Structure formats: C-alpha cells, structure tokens
Amino acid sequence: xxxxxxxxxxxxxxxxxxxxxxxxxxxxxxxxxxxxxxxxxxxxxxxxxxxxxxxxxxxxxxxxxxxxxxxxxxxxxxxxxxxxxxxxxxxxxxxxxxxxxxxxxxxxxxxxxxxxxxxxxxxxxxxxxxxxxxxxxxxxxxxxxxxxxxxxxxxxxxxxxxxxxxxxxxxxxxxxxxxxxxxxxxxxxxxxxxxxxxxxxxxxxxxxxxxxxxxxxxxxxxxxxxxxxxxxxxxxxxxxxxxxxxxxxxxxxxxxxxxxxxxxxxxxxxxxxxxxxxxxxxxxxxxxxxxxxxxxxxxxxxxxxxxxxxxxxxxxxxxxxxxxxxxx
Length: 328
Description:
- This protein is α/β, with parallel strands linked by helices and about 325 residues long.
- It is built from eleven helices and 14 strands.
- The protein has helices at about 20-30, 50-60, 80-85, 90-105, 140, 155-175, 200-210, 225-230, 235-245, 275-285, 305-325, and strands at about 10-15, 35-40, 65-70, 110, 125, 135-140, 180, 190, 195, 215-220, 250, 255-260, 260-265, 290.
- The two termini are about 30 Å apart.
C-alpha cells in the first residue's frame, strides 16, 4: 500500500474512467506521478474484484504512475443503501468486499458521494473566457423537475441511511487501510427531484465527520462545490477546520462564478476564490494529499476528456503550488 502520509502536497490528474496508452502518456507529459480514476470501467455489476483492481494498479505502475484513488463506484452498487430500500444488506456486503479488494490490491482511497440522483447541471455549453464552453446550473430551471425516485424523501431518512452505511463500512476500511473520502453534493442546494442534498454546507459535513470519527474517514474536498456554497464565502475557514483535524484526503481544484442556486464553472483564477490564498491555506494546515483539476472548461479542438483544458488547468495548479512553496 502507498504510504500517503510520506508524500508531499502535489498535483495529480484524474477524472478518467480508464487508462488508455494516450491517457497514461498525457499524465506523464503534464508532469504528474499520481492518477485517480473516476467510475473506472471495470467488470462487475455489483462489486469490484481483486484481479481487475490489481491489473489496473500495475498498468499505472508500468507507466511510471501511482494509482492513488478510485472515485465513485457505480450508483447501482449502493443506491439501495442510500435510499434505505430492500436489498441494501446485499449491496453492503458487496461494498465491503469491494473495499477489501481495494486494500488487497494496494489502492488506498475510495472517493464516494451521497447523491442518489447524481450531479445536476442545466447547461453544458455555456460560454466562458474566449468562447470556451463550461457547465452551469440554475435552480430556477431545475426546481420543477419530476421526482427522481418516485417519492419525496426526508432529510432524516437520508441521514439514517448514511449512518447505517458508515457504521458498517468504516470498520472494514480500518481493517484493510482504505480511506473513504466524501464528496459534496453538486450542486449543494437543499433538495432536487424530491431527494435532499445532505452534503451542502459546513454544518452537515461537520456532523458526518464527528459522528464517524474514523481515521479512514475524510473529505474529497471539492473546491468547486465549496465555492458554490455561499458564493465562495467560507472556503478558507472550511479548509482550516477540516485540515487541522486531518480530514482532507484530496482536493478537486476547480471554481465557479456565482452560488449554489445559480453558477457557471470557469477557468481557475476567474472564479469566486483567490486561488493563491486557497493553496496557502492548504499548505498552512499541513495538507499532504494530491490536487486534481476537475470539470475543466473545454477549449478549441479538445477531446471529450479535454486535452488542452486539462493541460492548462494542471499547469496552472503546478505553477500555483510552486509559487506558494517559494513563498515559504
């Protein structure tokens, strides 16, 4: 298993779902040594198996990379758990075995979310700087959406289901040394499609971390989502609070203009936050994880996963980290 605590704060690349020769080369050409896969294309309709995971890890290592995290199992692996439906016990057993298999394969982090109806956007081609295209969200356009899961769920129902799951997952994580990193709800509004968005504010994240204080439980700190909360106010405070308690496992470094009810994703440096201050805050709390670009605007002639947009964002982050390290 990779000793994550022995590594410095660093820039990685992620949000691929497979490791093609092209993507492996792209990561190295961007100057990164670490890679994260999001909802990787792996066999299995109910869980991930050891053999497939070890092949994924060694494919990265044979290209000179560390596979440091897998983010998001398919929602069908644990949708019944999130919604408290019949069959959740079987899903839990498979999720526990998935985590055991990750530990056996030496993959140290599982990023997860608690969004039964996923990420929402109301535009995927909003123009930003220079005609680049980005995603956007407007609650006014989404508020009349039909129920995504047949009925209205209460917030306490989702909390009960969350606590039931974490009480049973974290002992397995501790047994095999795999960290679970919680992503915010995106967008972090109160409810969408009849399902509450639990992880939309500081108070609810604090509740989750204090209720489940395992050293294997922390945050996939999505800066973009935290920037959406309160229009960017509170970003630095949240980094300090969770960082000082060792709960920041890795960072999605993106930004938006606007707030949760209406925002557009933009290039780093054009959004709500002062990115130098954000990077400085991470350094001050002793953050030793990795930062990845995320949801980058698409530039002219990009591929579907964004060569130019991703190269630009990764270069920006590398320069930002070097600047903050030079400031001491």
